[in-house]
From TrEMBL, chain A:
The lineage of its organism: Bacteria, Pseudomonadati, Bacteroidota, Bacteroidia, Marinilabiliales. This is Outer membrane lipoprotein-sorting protein. Transmembrane segments: none annotated. The keyword Lipoprotein applies. Keywords: Lipoprotein, Signal. Residues 1-24 form the signal peptide. Residues 70-245 form the Uncharacterized protein TP-0789 domain. It comes from Marinilabilia salmonicolor. The keyword Transport does not apply.
């Protein structure tokens, strides 16, 4: 009797432990897969439409072309509205950015350590725009499976993050994120990003990201079109000289 | 008249049931009465300055700005910086808060030859600890105009943490939560809470504590005085019951009609308790004095006798209150006027219908009252009233001369009268809100917001240039320290682009610089969404009426000279509102007094069918008002939103005494035809009622001396003075005039 009881307990502990560790492994694996889906192309070009929607539902539209190489080089060139056409932003590794304002005919280097500031009036912070792998920035914890998604709780590795956690829903079959919910350090949900992915060639593309600032009741939609992958962009395409063109 | 009195006795049960029913209904409604501590909401919508202020405050968030000041001997110490971060975080994570700005999270933009560095002034995750780090932070903060005197005081002993609240949601509740959270941190530095959301929270507490503490005390004080005067249970119960019902009905009516309790209307219960008991006292007095054997007949006759004087007394008092409707600037004073008038009329109706109905229905006829009042009469009569009568008949001219001298003195004092509109003055000197306001004023250039509103294309170089010029002009005033506008930011960004700290001439450049500012937290506080309106936000450091007047005048002239069809400029803010309020106080005092005096004379003359009696009745109260304003001038009690009410209220209550003397004089004259006898008996009879009434009203209002709100303390004191003044003048000045007028008439009659 006694030994049987012990066996049962022991088995239960082992099973529980293995479920736990399996989940931990699963969580990392799931997040890694998501990173693979999001960051696997060598480069990308496309058109970006930024729709800003205020709390009264009033929309403001900006358009830009995007070029991206790897995870850390990106060029934004605004094409519309006319007053902002030609403004370009070049992001390089190590938080270095260059801004070009055509009306001044000059570029300026912008070093920003304040990453919780929003990018150009959108609801995306510099932090959100950064293409650092999620598995590097966050420690994942498996929460549950729900319908067609895995739910993970991501805890920032750096204590400097503005977020206490990010709840992410990842598509079970195709591993792209569907919803991310950002919580501040008071554990209040402050932002929410909804993703719509489309397959283009071999890659999944975030055709639309809708970011809502729940405090300000303000929304930004980023829509991608004419997306091309792996066209062979080089580092020369991401220089200050190119910024002015 | 008899039919009216008969009717009351006949339908007594119907009346009693109706009153009980209505009381249940109104007390149920009164529970929903809200407190509105927001003084801004009381600014009149028909005044452009006030309307603009409300609009701008809401649109650009200035009215929802709170400020916490941390004071210590040196802000630049590791632990102080740590505490600032603690406060910043606890505010940041309070729901209902939109933004927080403090030393530990403020954005810092540095420009250099190669570009811009956008970062935090202090890295909140790596706070400075070393003395060298703290010293360099200190030097940097003091080197930048946007921090010095704005976020850290010039002397380095205080720092400000500013926050804005989301427009929707319960601002008072959020302010309270913030205050509680910070007090719970139990920091060694001194903390002060300022700004409108915080002030509103405090005022709310003061209103509640005033009502909770003062009303029962007033009730008790009046009860004691009534007991001493009537020495009967009924004499205490009925007047207080009627006054209490009038309070409940009025509060219920306010709730039903959607009004709220304000810093002023919270004294309505006190006023009604003091005023509303008087009518019942007179009705009871009249019933007591009627010695007819048949109780029902006695009641009917007593009612008939008292009907006109009581109606006159109530209507004139109500007129005193209603007169505020025509003169006042703040809507809360108008509301106060309307509802105290309504409450007075309710007390009148209840005294005339409900009191006799109750007496007859519940058989509360007085027992042995005649004997008791005889007894009392002897004390009052022999010690005070008889000697007074003797003196008056002997020296009517001396009496007049004495009053004349007093009035001349007071007219002199009247010239010295001052006004006060500073909200901080409304709190006692040791009140935390008052202390906080003083600190804000000393260390951070005050907390009176100033807005200069520009309407035009906010991206045009001309408009932005105008803003810069206006800001320069404003800063010439010693009371303006810091100004902020979108034009400052454009200049700063232009500098960052390497073209100097100025507004670019080219609109295209401005539009592109805008790209850098878009989405920053501060932008909604400076320009509207479609960029057609922008504001210069500033603070005014002085609360001195003269400084405010000079600044407003100067600014309005500047605006007149500088605006054009492309750029409309308007000035608003607390100084402008104070300026309006200040000039309106004197106007409002004069208007409401003139209206009240005219109406009172008109009504008294009409009902007594004699213009001369109307004028006679007004003489003692006009004299009282002159004495009152004279005393205010001499003692330096200022005319403010509460004391401006005293004159007309004193008139409304004080006129009652004259009316009782004149109607009593009439009745006695008709009875025995001898004017001198009539004067003697009216002083002996009505004199008693007047002295009891003066004492009970006086005591009721003197309770206001314990109010938390300074103007209400002054209000109580001044009403007290006016009560003594009008009682005394009705018993000395008015009879002296009647005696002299009568002697003259006799002489004229004899000559014929």
């Amino acid at each position: 009797m006694k030994s049987r009881f012990q066996t049962v307990v022991l088995t239960a502990i082992i099973v529980a432990g293995s479920i736990f560790s399996a989940n931990a492994q699963d969580a990392s694996a799931i997040l890694k897969k998501m990173d693979d889906v999001m960051y696997s192309p060598k480069d990308m070009t496309g058109n970006n439409k930024i729709i800003l929607i205020d709390k009264n539902g009033k929309e403001e539209i900006r358009e830009a072309t995007i070029q991206q190489k790897g995870n850390d080089k990106r060029m934004f060139r605004f094409t519309s509205p006319a007053s902002q056409a030609g403004i370009s932003v070049l992001s390089l590794p190590n938080d270095v950015m260059y801004l070009y304002l055509p009306a001044f005919g000059k570029e300026r280097r912008i070093a920003t350590s304040a990453k919780n500031q929003n990018f150009a009036g959108t609801d995306f912070s510099y932090d959100d725009m950064e293409s650092v792998l999620f598995s590097v920035k966050y420690t994942p914890k498996f929460v549950k499976t729900e319908g067609n998604v895995y739910v993970l709780e991501l805890t920032p590795v750096s204590e400097k993050s503005d977020y206490s956690k990010v709840m992410v829903q990842i598509n079970k079959t195709d591993s792209y994120p569907e919803l991310m919910e950002y919580y501040d350090k008071g554990n209040t949900k402050v932002k929410e990003a909804r993703y719509t992915f489309k397959k283009i060639g071999n890659y999944w593309n975030a055709a639309e990201i809708e970011m809502t600032d729940l405090k300000k009741n303000h929304k930004t939609k980023m829509q991608m079109s004419d997306v091309k992958y792996d066209t062979g962009l080089t580092d020369d395409d991401f220089t200050v000289r190119k910024l002015k063109q | 008249m008899n039919r009216f009195a008969d009717g009351i006795v006949k339908f007594k049960w119907l009346i009693i049931i109706a009153v009980v029913g209505l009381t249940v209904f109104f007390s149920y409604q009164a529970k929903d009465l809200h407190i509105n501590a927001d003084i801004i909401s009381s600014l009149p919508d028909d005044d452009p300055v006030a309307r603009l202020y409300k609009e701008i405050g809401t649109q650009f968030g200035g009215n929802d700005m709170g400020m916490i000041v941390l004071e210590t001997n040196d802000v630049f110490k590791a632990e102080v910086i740590q505490h600032i971060k603690q406060i910043t975080d606890s505010i940041k994570y309070t729901s209902g808060v939109s933004t927080v700005t403090s030393l530990t999270n403020i954005l810092d933009i540095k420009s250099s030859e190669w570009g811009i560095e956008i970062g935090k002034l202090v890295d909140e995750y790596d706070l400075p600890v070393e003395q060298s780090q703290l010293d360099s932070l200190k030097n940097y903060v003091f080197s930048k105009e946007m921090y010095r005197g704005a976020i850290v005081s010039e002397d380095g002993t205080a720092t400000a943490i500013m926050f804005t609240l989301l427009p929707e949601g319960d601002k008072q509740a959020v302010a309270k939560e913030i205050k509680d959270k910070i007090e719970a941190l139990d920091l060694p530095e001194t903390t002060y809470f300022g700004g409108l959301p915080m002030m509103m929270n405090d005022i709310n507490d003061l209103i509640v504590s005033d009502i909770v503490w003062l009303v029962p005390i007033v009730f008790l004080v009046i009860a004691i005085i009534l007991l001493l005067s009537f020495k009967s249970f009924r004499g205490v119960l009925l007047p207080l019951l009627i006054a209490g019902l009038a309070v409940i009905w009025t509060m219920g009516l306010m709730a039903v009609t959607g009004y709220e309790l304000t810093i002023i209307s919270n004294i309505i219960p006190v006023v009604l308790l003091a005023v509303g008991s008087a009518y019942t006292i007179h009705v009871l007095n009249s019933i007591n004095h009627n010695k007819l054997a048949d109780r029902k007949q006695a009641l009917v006759q007593a009612l008939r006798y008292i009907l006109i004087p009581v109606i006159l007394a109530a209507v004139t008092t109500a007129i005193g209150f209603v007169s505020f409707v025509f003169g006042a600037y703040l809507t809360m004073i108008k509301d106060f006027g309307i509802f105290t008038a309504v409450g007075t009329l309710i007390a009148l109706i209840l005294s005339l219908f409900f009191v006799p109905a109750l007496i007859s229905g519940l058989s509360m006829y007085g027992k042995k009252t005649a004997i008791e009042s005889e007894e009392k009469q002897t004390i009052l009569t022999h010690k005070i009233l008889l000697p007074l009568v003797k003196f008056l008949f002997k020296h009517p001219k001396y009496t007049l001369t004495g009053w004349g001298v007093l009035l001349m003195l007071c007219i002199g004092g009247l010239m010295l009268i001052k006004t006060s509109v500073n909200m901080a003055d409304y709190f006692k000197k040791d009140n935390p809100t008052r202390i906080a306001e003083d600190v804000m004023q000393k260390k951070f250039g005050g907390s009176l917001p100033v807005f200069v509103v520009f309407e035009g294309d906010m991206q045009s170089p001309e408009v932005l240039q105008k803003m810069i010029e206006t800001q320069r002009f404003m800063k010439e005033d010693p009371s303006i320290d810091v100004t902020q506008s979108v034009a400052d930011l454009i200049e700063q960004m232009n500098d960052v682009m390497g073209e100097g700290k100025r507004i670019p001439d080219d609109k295209a450049k401005i539009e592109q610089l805008w790209f850098l500012l878009d989405g920053q937290d501060v932008m909604p506080q400076l320009v509207n969404d479609d960029l057609t309106k922008g504001v210069i936000q500033s603070k005014f450091a002085s609360v001195d009426t003269k400084d405010i007047e000079a600044f407003t005048k100067k600014m309005n002239r500047f605006i007149e000279e500088n605006q054009n069809e492309y750029c409309q400029i308007e000035l608003t803010g607390m100084p402008s509102v104070y300026d309006k309020l200040n000039s309106s106080l004197l106007n409002s005092q004069r208007n409401s007094l003139l209206i009240a005096i005219a109406l009172v004379i008109l009504i008294v003359s009409a009902i007594l069918r004699s213009v001369s009696k109307g004028v006679f009745a007004a003489i003692p109260v006009v004299a009282t008002i002159i004495v009152l304003l004279g005393i205010m001038g001499i003692t330096g009690i200022p005319l403010d939103i509460a004391t401006v009410l005293v004159g007309s209220i004193a008139l409304g209550i004080g006129i009652d005494y004259s009316i009782h003397i004149i109607t009593g004089f009439n009745n006695h004259l008709l009875e025995n035809g001898d004017a001198e006898k009539a004067i003697e008996s009216v002083i002996l009879l009505s004199g008693k009622a007047i002295i009891i009434n003066v004492t009970s009203v006086l005591a009721g209002f003197l309770v206001l001396l314990f109010s938390q709100i300074v103007p209400l303390q002054n209000f109580g004191l001044l009403i007290g003075i006016s009560m003594i003044g009008s009682g005394f003048s009705a018993l000395s000045l008015l009879p002296a005039i009647l005696i002299l007028a009568n002697r003259k008439r006799k002489i004229v009659a004899n000559n014929h």
